[in-house]
Write a structure and sequence with these properties.
The chain is mainly alpha-helical. 69% of the residues lie in helices and 0% in strands. It is built from ten helices and no strands. Helix 1 packs across helix 6, helix 5 packs across helix 10 and helix 7 packs across helix 8.
Length: 216
Amino acid sequence: MSKRKTVVAAAPPQAEREARQPVEAIRAAAFTQFAERGYPVVTVRDIMKACGLTQGALYNHFKSKDELLHDIITSTQAELERICLQAVGEAGDDPRAQLAAFVRVYVIRHCRLRIEALVANREIGWLDADRVSDIRRSRRAIRDILVAVLTRGIDKGVFDPPEIDGRHDLKAMAMALLDQCTHVSMWYIPGRRLNEEQMATLYAEMALRSVGASKK
C-alpha cells in the first residue's frame, strides 16, 4: 500500500503576518465602531483604542479615516462579488440551480456578517465620488450576474417572471431580489427559530417562486 503524501502549505513569513495582523485588527474595530456609533462620530483615536493599538499605527496602513472606510467597504464588497460569481459558476447549467446558489451564498453572508453589511450599506454615503465608484462598479457586477441568470432562465423556458407593459425588466427584478436578500442583515438574529442555512433555503425558494421557476 502506497503512503499518501501530505502537503502542508507554507506559512507566510513572520514579517508578512506581523504586518497583516494590525490591519485586520484595525478593520475589525472600524466595522464595529462605525456600526455602533456611525462614521461621523467615530474618531481615529476611538478605533485605535478599540483594537489596542496606538493612533500612529493606523497611519502606517491608512492615510485617513476616509481611506479606512473605503478599504473596509471595498474589501467586503469584493468578497461578496467573488462568492456570488463562484456560486453561479459551480451550480451547473440549470438557471434554477444557479439562482438558488446565488441567493443562498448572498443570504448566508448577510446573516453571518451583519455588521459589515450594515456599515457597507449605511456609511457609503460619507465617501467621495472617486472612492464610491469602484464600490458601485462591484455592486453593478453582482446585479449583472443575477440578470444573466434570469436571462438564461427565460431563454430556456424555466423562468416565467411577471411582465410590465408586455416586457420583462430584469434589472429591476434583480435589484428587488438583491434588496430583499440584503435587508436580512437588518433583522436576522442568530439563535432564533431559523438558522442561517434555513434562512438561505427559505430565501432561495422565495426567489425561485418570484420568477415563476418551473419544477425540475
